[in-house]
Amino acid sequence: MARPKAKELTARELEIMHVFWERSDSDTPKELTVAEVRDDLEQAGRELAYTTVATLVRILVEKSFLKQTNEERPFLYCSIRSFEDVSGSMLGDMIQKVFGGSREKLLLRLLEERQLNPQELKKIKEILKEES
């Protein structure tokens, strides 16, 4: 029996999604070709073959993270799921798997690392003030 397709994103798939999210406006997903995605990755120092990027885009379409928006070549793709949606889902999964569902343990672990910059620490303090 075939193994079911993973719904989670691999590291490479996440790289592709970041290109779409970074090139999109806040409310309007940007349509990109595979070549544009590959070029963006190359400019960021990540060289992948065109066929590799095309395969990753196809997989992301199958997983319903991207959709094809036209029928003629070059094909255009755009993000279906926002960064906020995907990162929230991935973070929730990580909190469940690593910290047994405890957000408190996650926050304590972050603070124990002491690698937060002053801006990050300020933002956390602001959020904590809002919650009290």
Structure description:
The structure is a single chain. This protein is mainly α and 132 residues long. The chain has 2 domains: 1-101, Arc Repressor Mutant, subunit A (Orthogonal Bundle); 103-132, no CATH class. The protein has 6 helices and 2 strands, in the order H-H-H-E-E-H-H-H. It has a two-stranded antiparallel ribbon with strand order 1-2. The radius of gyration is 18 Å and the shape is elongated. The model has no long low-confidence stretch (mean pLDDT 91).
Sum up the structure in keywords:
two-stranded antiparallel ribbon, 132 residues, single chain, elongated, 2 domains, mainly alpha, Arc Repressor Mutant, subunit A, 6 helices
Topology:
Blueprint: H1 11-23, H2 34-43, H3 50-62, E1 66-68, E2 77-79, H4 83-99, H5 103-113, H6 118-131
Antiparallel strand pairs: 1-2
Helix pairs in contact: 1-3, 2-3
Précis, in short:
The chain is mostly helical. The chain has two domains: 1-101, Arc Repressor Mutant, subunit A (Orthogonal Bundle), CATH 1.10.10; 103-132, no CATH class. Helices cover 59% and strands 5% of the residues.
Count all strands and give the number: 2
Number of helices: 6
Q: What oligomeric arrangement do these chains adopt?
A: single chain
Tell me the helix content: 55-70%
Query: Which radius of gyration do the C-alpha atoms yield?
Result: 18 Å
Family: Belongs to the BlaI transcriptional regulatory family.
Keywords: DNA-binding, Transcription, Transcription regulation
InterPro entries: BlaI_family (IPR005650), WH-like_DNA-bd_sf (IPR036388), WH_DNA-bd_sf (IPR036390)
Pfam families: Penicillinase_R
